[in-house]
Structure formats: C-alpha cells, structure tokens
Design brief:
alpha/beta, 4-stranded mixed β-sheet, 48% helix
Length: 278
C-alpha cells in the first residue's frame, strides 16, 4: 500500500512487538470498497509475515460504525477483477480464512454498527467484545435481495445454532449487543465505559503467553470449523445475486431512501429493510 497516493482506510499500529491494533478509518460510514479490501490483504500479509505478533485487536476510529457493508457506489468489476489470494479464494473471503487460520489471536472490539462485512469480520476473529450502548450487528443482505458474501451461512450455524442462524440471516434484522451475547454471536456485551479496558487487559495478558502454544491451540480448535471452500461458495452466490433484478431493485429503492449516506437509513438499516418489504 502506497500511503503517499492512497489514503489509509486501515491503520495498523504495533503497540508492542507482540500486540498490534488494526483500526478501520473510512469515514463517514466505514463502508468497504475495493481499496479497503486491498488494504485488508496487506494487513493479513503483515500479520502472517511477522514471527513475533501474538495478538491483534480490530477496532474502529469512525464513530457509530465498526465495519459496514460493501460500497455499492463502486463499480462491481473493481472487486470481481481482483486476483484471488493465496488460499485461491477471492480477496475478501481469502482475508477472512487467513485471519481465522493465522497462529495469532484476533479480537474484535466492536463499538457501533457491524453490518454485513463487519459481522463477517467478527465471525472470523477468535473472540469479539461489544459495547452495550452503540453496537448493532446485522447480516442484512436477504432484505435487499442478496446473499451474503463473507461466509456467515457457513460459520453462524456452528456458533449460534441452525435455527438462530436462519433468524439472523433471513430476518435481516438489527441485533443489539445484548441479543448477540445471548445468542453466542459474540463473547460478551460490556458497558461502553468498560469495553476498552477489558479488551486491553485481555489482549495484553494473552500477548504475554508463548506463541507456539497459542498457535497450536488455535489450530486444534479450528478443526471444528466448516471447510474454507464454503466461504468461496458464499462469495459466488453473493456475486450472482447482485446480477438479479431483485437485488438491483432493492439496492436502488434503499438508495433512494438515503442508503450509503449519513442518516437514518444507515443507523436504522433493519427498520428500513422492513419498510421496503411492505
């Protein structure tokens, strides 16, 4: 990534050699376009290449938005023309798979909306903690005629159960942090004033442990995961869904209401999807 020519949408800070922070910073809404995907690829390459790092915390610098849905104003071919990553998967599912498989502990610190890609990111992390006051988690895609592209169909059922996964995916409704905790979607919902200190203490504690033991434990726990290829199948279904008139009409109608602009549609996306369905 050339910082002289491309604005950084993801900031990687090495707090210590063993504990890093990755911060999303694409104001005002933290939508994920092709450039952010390229920066995700650079980020995971840096994590994989470093022999010292043991813990990476993902957070956001954008108020009210952890990580949002994709950028629907960007030409789709900019995303689909990107070469596959080292796993053979397209760049976004490739990043998610590599993050889950890396011998490094990944922790999502969620404050604000984790919509679509944000939910897929937290599902790929090893742990996730969310602020009670502002966090909203959403797999919204079915509500606009799409299929999600980052693997929640593969990963949610084993995490929260098949029926609850169906509820989350097919209702396209917004979930509060408390609901997500009750379902097992996240590790814990914490009062906002306690969130940073809790994650900082946990990340610092784990970063002091032996990296080989961390990596081997994670590898063995990961045996319970669905095959990585299932994320690729989800991506293919997502791209196919975007070519259907139902999705094109749904996105057009949502955009007419103010989608992808600061305002009520982005902050209450679940409500406005329900209004479209009427």
């Amino acid at each position: 990534m050339d910082a002289k020519t491309v604005a950084p949408q993801i900031r990687l800070v090495r707090n210590t050699p063993v504990y890093w922070r990755v911060t999303f910073n694409n104001a005002p809404l933290n939508v994920m376009g092709p450039e952010m995907v390229r920066q995700f690829q650079a980020t995971i390459a840096a994590i994989e290449a470093d022999e010292s790092v043991r813990v990476v915390v993902f957070d956001s610098a954008v108020e009210d938005f952890f990580l949002n849905h994709s950028d629907f104003m960007a030409p789709l071919e900019e995303m689909t023309s990107m070469p596959p990553g080292p796993t053979g998967l397209p760049p976004w599912p490739d990043f998610l798979v590599r993050l889950t498989r890396a011998p490094v502990v990944s922790i999502a610190l969620i404050r604000g909306r984790a919509t679509g890609n944000g939910s897929e990111l937290l599902l790929s992390c090893d742990m996730s903690f969310a602020g009670k006051e502002k966090t909203i988690i959403s797999q919204w895609e079915v509500g606009v005629g799409m299929v999600a592209g980052g693997g929640p169909m593969a990963r949610l059922p084993s995490l929260i159960g098949r029926n609850r996964a169906m509820e989350v995916l097919l209702s396209s409704e917004d979930l509060s942090a408390d609901q997500a905790e009750a379902y097992g979607y996240i590790n814990r919902a914490l009062p906002d004033a306690e969130l940073d200190d809790y994650v900082e203490a946990l990340a610092t504690r784990i970063s002091g442990f032996d990296k080989w033991a961390i990596g081997q434990t994670k590898r063995l726990v990961n045996a319970s995961l669905p095959p990585d290829v299932e994320l690729g199948a989800g991506w293919d279904a997502c791209i196919a869904s975007l070519g259907r008139p139902a999705a094109q009409d749904g996105i057009k109608a949502l955009t007419a209401k103010g989608f992808q602009k600061p305002g009520d549609v982005e902050t209450r996306l679940g409500f406005h999807l329900g209004e479209l369905a009427r």
